[in-house]
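Schema walk-through. Below, the input block comes first and the output block second. Nothing else is stored per chain. Lengths vary across the set, and this one has 285 residues.
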Amino acid sequence: MTNSLPFLILVILSLMVLGFLMMTNRDQAGRIIVFWLFISGLAYVFEFLIFILGGSYEYDPAILSNQYNDSVLGSISSQAFSVPISLTFIAVKRLKFGWILVIIAFFYFIESWFVLVGIYEHFWWKSIYTSIFLLLGAYLSKKWWKRMADPGLEKLHFITLYFSLSVLTLSISWILSPLLDLYKIPLSLFSDEMRNSITGNSIYSWVCNYLYTLAIFYRPNNIVAFWITLLILMTLDYALIHFNFLAVRGVCGIITLPLFHIAMLLLGKKLFSWYGHALKKTAEH
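--- output ---
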């Protein structure tokens, strides 16, 4: 058995669960997608703190040549798919405590098996910690999903959009920076260069994502706001390059960042249209 197969199976099973959830709740499909991405965005923050900064564990799907990027890819399979989709299922289906415990027990078994076969290694982390955070996550997910139905909770919807878009921003920027090396935020916090690159890129992406979210949430159909936001982002990039906080590689690197910002603003607008449509329907009822 190759290392990558268990990770791939988990991702496929998770996507099947998501597909089932959307087919059985067609009227809420857009809201379900946004909620799944929102939970993924929160999971990315959690992973940044305990995995990237804290060095809690290591994945080994054996897909990418760089060991640290390979571990990050394993992390994405968990934090972008299996965990958030499970929490989304719990919230949308309003599962009772007993079923939540069954799902948590399943994750405990899978994590323990991953450790046993050597495709996942704990440093200071323990499987029981995962179970505790999943239990907390299930409780909070059910609360948040319920409150998302209220169109009047502006701050809640802004936060939801921010984190749902952030998982796309971070994932795409990881491909552009640590994987393709088109740009880099040079830091010297750790001995591993790739770990430094991912840390810097994550912080940069979260800042950019805040500006995307401001424009999309408050001025979703305003072309002037779109171009002003893009100008602010390009000015920020230029300042970071000027003060040696951002390095770009050749012509490809120079054109990558403006195109990246445009793509994320358009993706975010599409995401918000799904979400906004669901909110509008809720308000009408």
